[in-house]
Design goal:
- By secondary structure, this protein is of the alpha+beta class.
- The chain has one domain (24-182).
- It has 5 helices and 12 strands.
- The protein has helices spanning 47-55, 88-97, 99-104, 135-144, 169-174, and strands spanning 8-11, 19-21, 27-32, 37-42, 62-68, 78-82, 108-114, 120-123, 129-132, 148-149, 158-160, 179-182.
- The chain has a 9-stranded mixed sheet, with helices on one face.
- It is globular.
- It starts with 7 loop residues before the first strand and ends in an 8-residue tail after the last strand.
């Protein structure tokens, strides 16, 4: 697998037909939602390493929701939620096992939540992590990773890439643990 595989792109200023890999400006910002504020993290790279570090701040055990929003015939689109809670060691093994797939292919979103609290991490197909819960704790992790405070501007238009090289990763991921399948909900493919 080559380093040229990327999940999220923007268009080159010289051409509206050739997209290039897009890297966020390595920042975080607080965003107010209708329910509560959340931390939006837009790292340049190493999203899974950051997600792992953030997940260590959530109380165990965890649930994982894997949203397959664009299938390529390898599995059925939908929401896949872990049937049994995962503990830290299993969660970290899961994230490490599928790191390249998560970071380089745009067919999915990934949620990690604490079973016994409302704390939640959402890693989406734009390479952005949304963190709900103790914002000062998450901000400290962001600073440890060298992210600075700033305003995220999403490139428009942008692209999402789905690579044949990762088609086998979906069945492997779905065999990692037991999952319960639910249909996608409106807005899941945003």
């Amino acid at each position: 697998m080559t380093e040229t595989l990327y999940k999220f792109g923007s268009f080159d200023a010289m051409s509206l037909f050739d997209d290039v890999p897009y890297q966020h400006p390595h920042l975080w910002q607080i965003e107010q939602t209708t329910a509560q504020p959340r931390l939006v993290l837009a790292p340049r790279s190493d999203q899974i390493a950051l997600l792992r570090a953030l997940s260590r701040r959530l109380p165990e055990p965890y649930y994982v929701l894997y949203m397959l929003v664009t299938a390529r015939g390898e599995s059925q689109e939908g929401r896949y939620q872990t049937t049994e809670p995962l503990f830290r060691e299993d969660l970290e093994h899961f994230l490490e096992s599928f790191q390249a797939f998560f970071e380089r292919d745009g067919r999915h979103h990934l949620w990690i939540g604490s079973v016994y609290s409302s704390e939640l991490l959402v890693y989406d197909n734009h390479n952005i992590i949304y963190a709900y819960g103790p914002l000062p704790t998450y901000q400290a992790v962001a600073r440890e990773f060298g992210l600075g405070e700033g305003e995220l501007v999403m490139p428009y238009p942008h692209t999402h890439h789905y690579h044949a090289e990762f088609d086998a990763s979906v069945p492997q991921l779905l065999n990692f643990t037991a999952w319960t399948h639910f249909p996608l909900q409106e807005g899941d493919d945003d």
